Backbone:
């Protein structure tokens, strides 16, 4: 896969589809490599007429690592935030949004459809707020506004995601990845266990970097509530969310759609906090139809 210099760091990315087609940038979530975008969904979007670009966020996968940069502990950070204090963090979600825009710059792309999932949805939201002229459209998938008034994640869902693996041995890393997948997955669309295990193995062998997750969590906490900022979004927006999401509750998607002027909301029963193969066509259709309506090719 290629790598480029963007926003003063090195970013790993890949592309799918005809470069002459409208560009679509995919932004992944917390601790998730770009390979968490199922290739079936990526290729489905390419077949629907888009030049699809996905990339590893900073501090994950094969992109730049902020080795040695210290982030405040999550509990301590949350406590200080509730007291109105803002501890120093290694980088912000706005920095991560600038990474995506920097990647577009490096690829010579003036404007793109931007699709973000989970933390990637938060990053995509900030691209729309802070770099709105660069977006043809925004799709925010199982993400949220960051408001503390919204229902919080189920403890069973968030614990494995925010806990480090017991060791860096492959068998422990795979078991840890499987626990995360099972905790946040869709109750209505359970994957084949062997296929899921192979997906986890492939990602473990590509890259493992738990330290980056803690710094990304710090960036999420630091960004706080985006509700007021989201009122500035001018890009046509689609919000997609699962009604059975245990990690980012569906109320987060509803709040996102309510905050962004003119946003459309689509919720799906049985869908959790993953991208099941059974929903690939449904999601690809929804994203492609939204993008075409926002900016006909």
Residues:
């Amino acid at each position: 896969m290629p790598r480029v210099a963007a926003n003063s760091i090195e970013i790993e990315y890949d592309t799918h589809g005809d470069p002459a087609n409208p560009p679509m940038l995919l932004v992944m979530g917390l601790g998730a490599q770009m390979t968490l975008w199922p290739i079936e969904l990526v290729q489905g979007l390419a077949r629907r007429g888009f030049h699809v670009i996905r990339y590893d966020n900073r501090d994950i996968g094969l992109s730049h690592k902020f080795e040695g940069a210290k982030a405040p502990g999550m509990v301590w950070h949350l406590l200080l935030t509730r007291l109105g204090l803002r501890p120093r963090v290694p980088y912000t979600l706005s920095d991560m949004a600038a990474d995506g825009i920097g990647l577009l710059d490096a690829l010579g792309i003036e404007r793109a459809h931007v699709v973000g999932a989970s933390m990637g949805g938060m990053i995509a939201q900030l691209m729309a707020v802070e770099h709105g002229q660069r977006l043809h459209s925004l799709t925010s998938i199982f993400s949220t506004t960051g408001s503390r008034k919204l229902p919080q994640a189920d403890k069973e869902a968030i614990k494995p995601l925010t806990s480090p693996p017991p060791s860096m041995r492959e068998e422990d890393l795979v078991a840890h990845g499987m626990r995360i997948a099972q905790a946040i997955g869709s109750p209505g669309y359970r994957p084949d266990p062997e296929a899921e295990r192979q997906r986890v193995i492939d990602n473990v062998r590509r890259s493992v970097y738990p330290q980056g997750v803690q710094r990304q969590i710090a960036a999420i906490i630091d960004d706080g509530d985006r509700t007021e900022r989201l009122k500035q979004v001018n890009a046509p927006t689609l919000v997609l969310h699962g009604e059975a999401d245990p990690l980012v509750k569906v109320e987060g998607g509803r709040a996102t759609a309510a905050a962004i002027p003119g946003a459309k909301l689509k919720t799906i029963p049985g869908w959790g906090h993953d991208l099941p193969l059974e929903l690939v066509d449904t999601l690809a259709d929804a994203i492609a139809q939204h993008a075409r309506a926002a900016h006909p090719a």
About this structure: The two ends are 28 Å apart (CA to CA).
